[in-house]
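If you are new to this repository, start here. Below is one unmodified record pulled from the training split, so you can see the exact layout before writing a loader.
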Amino acid sequence: MLVVGGMLVAACSLAPHAAPPGSVSPEERDEVVVLVDGEPVVRAELERGMNTARAGVAAANGGAIPPDRLRKEGLALAVQDKVLRLWAREEGLLADVSEAGFAAALAAENRRREQARASGRPLPGVPSYDEYTFAGLRAAELRKALADRLDLPRERVRAHYDELVKDLTGEPPTFAESEQRVRLSLADREVTRELVKRLQSAQVTQPSRKVH
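And here is the target side for that same chain:
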């Protein structure tokens, strides 16, 4: 078991050694690394997770980046992202949880931005997304959409407010002043808790290898 951000991911050691980001062929990027509840995590997703984990691994190891540690951390992040996508699909928020679906969504968004720019009405933000930035944006959007679906009674929001302000020094903002922010904080916490549960129960397995 591997813990990343407080989340448990099983079977991470099943992943093969990964090459540095950008050094694998298109065919290798489609190679299945592990299955998460039957859904493939491919090499491209592992590469993206490794890229995201790289700075943290370096910071934790005095600037060094042990390949095995980077691979484990990267795979844990890739599995976490797949579990999030599976949850979003279950809720009807996402139709395709595959890497191909992600790549298609990225291409469509960049086309939309290019068309807007060509028409003289550029969209806010960057001219185009790379896969790493878009992956972070998509994950944040899915988390928000899942949070928006939560039924959080005002009593629970008030209890969360009391928890947040009990150790503050000085005069905290009133509940009325901060209710919306507190609601968002509680919703984010509940999404994280549910994601932890789903990660703990996810079946992460090695794909069967073809025998030639």
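Two things worth knowing about this chain: The chain has one domain: 2-205. The helical segments are 26-29, 43-60, 67-90, 99-118, 131-148, 154-165, 175-201.
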